[in-house]
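Hi R.,

Here are the chain sequences for the assembly we discussed:
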Amino acid sequence: MRVLILGGDGYLGWPTALRFSARGHEVTVVDNFVRRRWVDGVGSDSLTPIGGLAERIDAWREVSGNEIRCFVGSVEDGEFLDGVVAETQPEVVIHYGQQASAPYSMASREKAVETQHGNVIGNLNLLFAIRDHVPECHLVKLGTMGEYGQPEIDIEEGYIEIEHKGRRDTLPFPKLPASLYHCSKVHDSTNIHFACRTWGLRATDLNQGVVYGIETDETADDERLITRFDYDEIFGTVLNRFCVQAVIGHPLTVYGTGGQTRGFLNIRDTLQCVELAALNPAEAGEFRVFNQFTEQFSVLELAQLVKHAGEHLGYSVEIQHYDNPRVEKEEHYYNAIHTKLLDLGLEPTLLGEELVESMIHAIERHKDRAIETAIDPHTRWNPGEPVQL
Amino acid sequence: MRVLILGGDGYLGWPTALRFSARGHEVTVVDNFVRRRWVDGVGSDSLTPIGGLAERIDAWREVSGNEIRCFVGSVEDGEFLDGVVAETQPEVVIHYGQQASAPYSMASREKAVETQHGNVIGNLNLLFAIRDHVPECHLVKLGTMGEYGQPEIDIEEGYIEIEHKGRRDTLPFPKLPASLYHCSKVHDSTNIHFACRTWGLRATDLNQGVVYGIETDETADDERLITRFDYDEIFGTVLNRFCVQAVIGHPLTVYGTGGQTRGFLNIRDTLQCVELAALNPAEAGEFRVFNQFTEQFSVLELAQLVKHAGEHLGYSVEIQHYDNPRVEKEEHYYNAIHTKLLDLGLEPTLLGEELVESMIHAIERHKDRAIETAIDPHTRWNPGEPVQL
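And here is the predicted structure of the full complex:
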């Protein structure tokens, strides 16, 4: 299969490229390395010492004998993206090429605009490129569970059947996005759904939970193939952050009570899910939505798990409750359906103390690279008075 | 009241500025005249011979003795908009400053990107400017009924109570926008709702139906105060188009069967609604949605009404069914609730033959300016094969 991966230099994009390449697919990656610049700009760096994309592609060729093709450029540049799609004629496009940090999007007007412009216009350019050059191509788009927010009802996978005043329809599930980044993902979903209805494109929106983990089968093959790993307040996801904090002796940064409940999944399962989606494409005209996570946890449960695992390994781990920099419910109903990927064959990698211990061991090898000043939460959702929810 | 009107040079923005000024409010308008350039760019022009904004403001001063303040610039320029908001300290911002044509947004990738960038980023800039300078200010945002599309259930005003698996919540009404322009308005609604939830802003989203009409009380005062009037396939709304077509002897351009049903309102009622919203602001943190139209009609009903009125005035009027350039249902359920503005005191101007005749009379004065080549539909929603709905 001809696979085009946008954002192929990233935390998930790079391991995804290796996975598809390892399976014998013809892989092309696109990146403009802006994620590296963003992380640098907030005073942080990947914990893992990743090489340049060209070096990593060379290492992969050496290890596997497989070629990954690479284009350097931005999805915001419509003509560039058009050219890449026309030249590579992908059968599936996997779109990770977006600004994916909620705090980054909330840090300033400029960063909010950068996030929404980059994400929405990049994705819109892609929809036109697919329509004009490869209308049968399957778009696999990374969405997020954060698009739904915390409604008082169960969260379904993309759609909900509504009975209203004696009539009935199945409509897009209402969204209450949790940041301007999450808003941008809702915008993307709206645009992709429109493109499927109007142009007959086929797309799968993977509303992904919070990803954790540091290794996949392919990145573990060779030190040079490792993927980036962020742990700062802006780009680090919560469990990854906690594990680094445990190793370097920083208190675990729980925001508020820690009662916030979300769906989580292992990076290995991200690859499984994306592969399952790609191998089982949506129909022409279909906008398919999968909720992509394996387990629900509260933030405090994760902190306790990391504390326990860390202490088991001899670390002294403290949990500290910080004033919540976000505007969000800390105690709330949360039940999100996530059966569609299981139906396609997903075999979840479940989270437990052993898995956290293995993450801690992987982190230990690079702990001297950790920049402790980048850890505490400084980016507030609301710079004014606290808002009552 | 200090009133800031974005898009104050436009079809609705200009009469709105006059209305608030006539009522003694302190009015500032912002525009960058891009609508004039867009219309020129598609080979058309306002049927009415409007003067420059400065000339019109001068004429209004002469007629009314009232001053309208004006800033020339783009809402996409965050620093410019920030400066205007900081300087004028508005109590209400009325945001018309957007690309408002569905066909324009569907004409090419470039125009789609221009539409979504301008609308989404301009509105996002505005949210930050309000948050940072006038957090108590009431945002009155023009949305569109086209955000909802044609669901099989009744369309409520912004929200719907959903009972699901024994639980219940009131959530944003699901949207099925009808073009990439309409998508941009959904994006705006999502962003504004987020800003209200997160920053405690107060906003009213006026999901407006299709506007028709050529005059308001104030624009009728003096020839120099007339507002623009578009009738081309891109920027003309359907009833305005039909009236011009009747006068110049062009067949009425019904797309497909004409069974498409929508909500409509007179331009005079737009002004009433905006004024009612401004005088009755949303609460802090509230994102209020009004469906702003007065009557539902099918396109064919409107064509028949114009044919009848035109023939009564001695015109020979033919109705012609064109291949539908849009991807839309032509026969569908449609029932949209619109009681909230009535509850605030809206007194609808109802559409009838007499009103159409008065529009035809107003159009007759400028009929020599009509550019007939701009009328037939050329902008297709889907340049490829027809999509089965």
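Chain B touches chain A through 56 residues (CB under 8 Å). Chain B has a mean pLDDT of 97.

Let me know if anything looks off.

Best,
T.
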